[in-house]
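Appendix B. Raw example, untouched.
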Amino acid sequence: MHGHASTTVGDIFSSAGPLARALPGFEPRDGQRQMAEAVAAVVDTGGVLLAEAGTGTGKTLAYLIPAILSGQRVIVSTGTKNLQEQIFFKDLPALREALGVPFTATLMKGRSNYLCLHRFETLDSGSQAGNPRLFESPDHQVFLPIIRRWAGTTTTGDRAELRDLPEDLPMWGEVAATADTCLGTDCPRYGDCFVTLMRQRAAESDVVIVNHHLLCADASVRQGAFGEVVPGAPTLVVDEAHQLEDVATQYFGFTFSNHGVDDLVRDAQRLAWSAGRGHGSTQREEVSRAIQRVADRSRAFFAVVSSARAWNTGAAEVRQVFPLAKGFVAGCLVTEGKINRNASARLRRGREIIYEGKVGTLKRFKDDANEVRAGLECGIKLDDFNGYQPGDVIECYEVQKVRAAL
């Protein structure tokens, strides 16, 4: 890979160029050629290019070809795994043949797509040692043997190889190589780590295909070269850029959730069980009590947070309109606190407030009540309004505060 991309890119997209000879049905398109020349100029001289083109322009080839011809490493970030895989498995092999230019490429996914050998072995050994409370569930009984067999043969650790594994399988989160649970160089399986091996392949590649989640996750934790997963490169291409804003917002903030603490507690319990079998019962009990204190304090803390939110507003989504009585809506769920019949309320449809007034009557499906507690499905009637639609949201104020103590 040598030379300046801008000197040859126009010829490649011509009717007599290598793309026309190698790709069946290829037709020269002015928009594609112009975009490719603009990309080549920025790659050669530096700067930022913002390009927008309609469907069918051939944007992917328009940025891949000048990037490959530049002789420099390029990072391509996409919004979806589907486009990642299209580029890696379809576009790049076609270009390697059409251009006659040797280059290497690596497909990088987010850490959670890869198996953590250390977490898996902790789970697997604990399961075989027989602690049903921590290690056994229907998911474990069905899928743990499948993962065990696969873990002994895979060279990538990419869960996509397990086609029978449900996409939303909760158990995968217990063996995934997440950043929150990574021990780094202290991990006993660091040398075999699939994320480490992926990073090594990427560091030696000319074209690295990532997605926005991995790009932002990497940028949010790196300090210089420390902690980097995506290798450095002089050229970055952001495809499906309209999705980048939402993804970046997730990573350049701070999130602390009860689910995260629950995951930490569960991992600690399993590790304590596996590592504590050679220690005395007193020490194991002390560790177990310490872990339980973390769980108890977490529940108390998030109960306070929930009650503070409930003090300001309670919300109920209208999931369906049910002909219980004129003006009543069924399928509402009071999410927090208690909503009283004299509360103020408004009905929101998307971002538009279409009604504001008082809650006229509250009714559970079986019983009349002056208030409806959290967790009960109910019908809510707003005075003088009967224009509900599925998807509307009722926001009720003056929700009674729920007290909790740490």
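End of appendix B.
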